[in-house]
Amino acid sequence: MRNLRTAGTRSDSVADTSAQKVELLQSTIERVIRGKPEVVRLALVTLLAGGHLLIEDVPGVGKTTLAQALARSLDCTFQRIQFTSDLLPSDVIGLSIYNQHDSLFEWKPGPIFANVVLADEINRTTPKTQSALLEAMAERHVTVEGVTHALPLPFMVLATQNPIEHHGTYPLPESQLDRFMLRLRMGYPGVTDEKLILRDREHAEPLDDMQAVMSAQDILELQGAVSDVSVDDAIVDYLMRIVAATRSSEMLDLGVSPRGTLSLFRAAQALALTEERSYCLPDDIKRLVVPVFAHRLTVSSRYSSAMRRSEEAEAVLVEIMKTISVPL
Question: Which structural domain, as residue segments, surrounds residue 120?
Answer without folding.
Answer: 7-322
